[in-house]
Amino acid sequence: MSFKRANDDSAQLNRLQKRRVEELFTENIPESDAKLLSNGRFACLVCKHNPIFDTVSMLVVHRKGKKHIINAEYKGSHDLEIGNLIKKRQHEEFSATGTISTVSKKMRPS
């Protein structure tokens, strides 16, 4: 639930956003799991549907939920699989050429 401010004091808005960022860090929520939106709300980056929460406490409650835990396990295994695939491709490249490129093929200038 959000409330309208009585006036458009940008300093007050900046303090509010800074406080919300500080709250996020005090709850030990990794930046890769949650994102602070421009309107001061929080989005869960682990879940596929990216639910949006008004407060950090609601985000903490969501993180303890069954669906979030399942999505976190899936994301962890997916990240591990991607990491293993990158290592495998680097090994294949090293076996073929004797060197490992530090720049991905998408980033190389043509």
Outline the fold blueprint.
Layout: H1 10-26, E1 34-36, E2 42-44, E3 52-53, H2 56-63, H3 66-97
Antiparallel strand pairs: 1-2, 2-3
Task: Please name the defining characteristics of this protein.
110 residues; mainly alpha; three-stranded antiparallel β-sheet; 3 helices; 3 strands; 52% helix; elongated
What is this structure, in a nutshell?
With 110 residues, the protein is mainly alpha-helical.
Order of helices and strands: HEEEHH
Report, as a whole number of angstroms, the end-to-end distance.
Answer: 51 Å
Q: What is the number of beta strands?
A: 3
- Report the radius of gyration as a whole number of Å: 20 Å
pLDDT under 50 segments (min length 5)? none
